[in-house]
Amino acid sequence: MENNQNDKLTYILMIIAGLICILNGVLVFDQTIIMILLSILFIIVGLIMSFISINGLRHKLK
User: Fold this and answer.
1) Using CA atoms, how far apart are residues 14 and 57, in angstroms rounded to an integer?
2) How much is the pLDDT for 61?
3) Can you tell me the distance from the alpha carbon of 31 to that of 51, in angstroms, rounded to the nearest whole number?
4) Is the pLDDT of residue 7 over 60?
5) Measured on CA atoms in the order 51, 57, 60, 61, is the torsion positive or negative?
6) 19, 22, 37, 44: which sits with the fewest CB atoms below 10 Å from its CB?
7) Alpha carbon distance 13, 40 (integer Å)
8) Exposed/middle/buried for 28, CB within 10 Å: 0-12, 13-18, 19+?
9) Using an 8 Å Cβ cutoff, are 18 and 50 in contact?
């Protein structure tokens, strides 16, 4: 039973990390090409991480 709670906590922390990556990508202040590419990369990684963790959490709750 404790392992199931640890898995849920891991998925919740992954959702938070994904949201922080998305926020980091959105709030870029430098408008150089490299920073724009990095912000796009952070947004993509954040979206992928959030999607995977939400799907994993949904399967654990069933």
Assistant:
1) 10
2) 82
3) 28
4) yes
5) negative
6) 37
7) 22
8) middle
9) yes
Amino acid identity of residue 8, one-letter, is: K
Q: How far is CA 18 from the centre of its chain?
A: 1
For 19-55, what is each residue's pLDDT tens digit? 999 999 999 888 899 999 999 999 999 999 999 999 9
Structural tokens at position 53: 């963790």
Confidence class for position 1, pLDDT limits 50, 70, 90: low
3-state class (DSSP) for residue 25: helix
> What is the token pair recorded at 7?
């898995």
Is residue 28 within 8 Å of residue 39, measured between CB atoms?
yes
